[in-house]
Amino acid sequence: MSDHAALLASIAVLIVIVFILTLMLIRRRRTYAEPLIDEMEGHDFEFYCAELMRDNGFHRVEVTRGSGDFGADILAVRDGVTYAVQCKCYNAPVGVHAVQEAAAGRDYYDRMVGAVLTNQYFTAPARDAARKLKILLWDRDQISRWERE
Q1: What is the pTM of this model?
Q2: Domain boundaries in the chain?
Q3: What residues are paired with 86 via a beta bridge?
Q4: Which of 24, 30, 136, 147 has its CA 20 to 30 A from that of 103?
Q5: Closest residue by Cα to residue 133 from 85, 87, 109, 100
Q6: DSSP characters over 43-96
Q7: Is residue 12 very low, low, confident or very high in pLDDT (cuts 50, 70, 90)?
């Protein structure tokens, strides 16, 4: 093998290694991007959700105080509609209690719409309760949509 051929072979191997490392890095970033919300503390998650809402057309977005929030973590307005949002950063599906809190928050703060925003999904009883209490359910798919927009 000539020196020229050896040099070309070395360059080809180097290019393949760089390509493989780049793919691994891209996969790692995709894997870790979304789960970061799963690692947030409750109040950090509330501020993150408030920022997402601001970035997606809500205004007058306000995070309520940490304890004694009467069932609403975020108050906001969009297209003339007022919202009271209960945030839940859980490691399991969200149940009925969060829906009840959102309904209480909507009524306490005299808002038009109540919603629960979570990094997870909702149980079937929570979805049933939300239908009856007229509460919006925003799960991790909604967060992903807002993050992309």
Answers
A1: 0.75
A2: 3-34, 40-148
A3: 116
A4: 147
A5: 100
A6: HHHHHHHHHHHHHTT-EEEEEPPSS--TT-SEEEEETTEEEEEEEE--SS-B-H
A7: confident
